[in-house]
Design a protein that fits this description.
The chain has 330 residues and is of the alpha+beta class. Helices cover 59% and strands 14% of the residues.
């Protein structure tokens, strides 16, 4: 319908191989589409497909070269910085200036979804390049890598601007494309500012750790900043998984067993107790449990663990064990 009037139309898909890339639609505003018109539209669709094939081929080559350079940049030794400076500048990364590295990581559950996530990532990258020309963008190991430049003498205000930019990127591209594709959105991790080759590589590693740790401890938050992780930075860097499980078992094992056998919530109560800084009224409000019930649970916790909640060292061990348990569960 056009201007309130029923209008006929002719529609033809633009396809490259088995993939659909768009549609040509012709409205019949003055006369029906003739056979001759159909032939013209079909030839136009064929030309459009050829242009797309050419653009895709060029983009594929460019993407391959850039991703090869990106891989080299992020694993190169410090003594290679001089050789990389010129090439990095050609890709929009000035190694002499500080940068914040951010990673948009996609955690697909099946190998069958890899291609769909890669296509979504390509669309996000295209949107970033069109709307944030100051950011260098690449793709590595199921992650979109962004290099966000900062002024030489950057301040907290500049870091706040980076946070605003990251929020805009998530809302305008990551979340929107995720909804359109009916897929889980990518999770964004952001490293701290770094200068030179070593600083950028450090910021990159921090961004990946922020992704991995943030989605475990704050799964409802789409962005995690390494600078905000606090003690989680240390816990996330513990490589000896066996030692982690042993520490959890030694510290919380009896409580976990009691909860399992009795259907109790002693571990959860202890977690909320620490979150509320030991303020029992807040604990009761958060758990919707009577004050006396909380007192009873805390008494049982101390009996079962043999730890006093007035002992700072014992409380620290319990808190660390709870945080490690949270990470191990996910």
């Amino acid at each position: 319908m056009l201007d309130g009037l029923e209008t006929g139309y002719f529609r033809l898909a633009i396809c490259v191989g088995k993939k659909w890339y768009g549609t040509i639609t012709v409205l019949e505003t003055k006369a029906p589409v003739s056979r001759s018109d159909e032939g013209t539209i079909e030839r136009t669709a064929a030309v459009a497909a050829l242009v797309l094939v050419n653009q895709l081929a060029v983009a594929s080559v460019e993407r391959r070269y850039y991703n090869e350079f990106l891989n080299e940049l992020l694993i190169a030794e410090n003594n290679e910085e001089k050789n990389l400076k010129g090439r990095a500048r050609g890709w929009g990364i000035d190694l002499q200036n500080p940068h914040v590295v951010a990673a948009i990581c996609f955690y697909h559950q099946s190998d069958e979804l890899v291609e769909e996530y890669q296509l979504m990532a390509q669309r996000i990258i295209q949107g970033l390049r069109e709307n944030f020309s100051d950011i260098a963008v690449g793709y590595k190991l199921d992650c979109i890598i962004m290099f966000i430049p900062l002024p030489q003498n950057w301040t907290g205000k500049d870091c706040n601007k980076v946070r605003e930019k990251i929020k805009a990127i998530y809302e305008r591209f990551v979340s929107r494309f995720g909804r359109v594709a009916s897929k889980d959105c990518g999770y964004i991790g952001v490293g701290r500012p770094g200068s030179g080759l070593a600083g950028i590589q450090s910021s990159y590693r921090e961004a990946l750790q922020a992704c991995q740790t943030g989605r475990k401890i704050w799964p409802k938050e789409p962005v995690c900043y390494y600078a905000d992780l606090g003690v989680w930075r240390l816990l996330g860097n513990i490589q000896d998984k066996q030692e982690i499980h042993l520490f959890i078992e030694e510290t919380l094992g009896k409580l976990l067993l009691y909860d399992q056998e009795k259907g109790a919530e002693l571990v959860k109560t202890l977690e909320v107790y620490f979150e509320c800084n030991g303020k029992l009224k807040k604990v009761t409000e958060k758990m919707y449990v009577h004050y006396n019930t909380i007192l009873y649970r805390l008494d049982r916790i101390q009996q079962i663990t043999g730890c006093s909640l007035e002992d700072a060292t014992a409380c620290l061990n319990l808190q660390m064990a709870i945080k490690l348990l949270q990470m191990a569960k996910k």
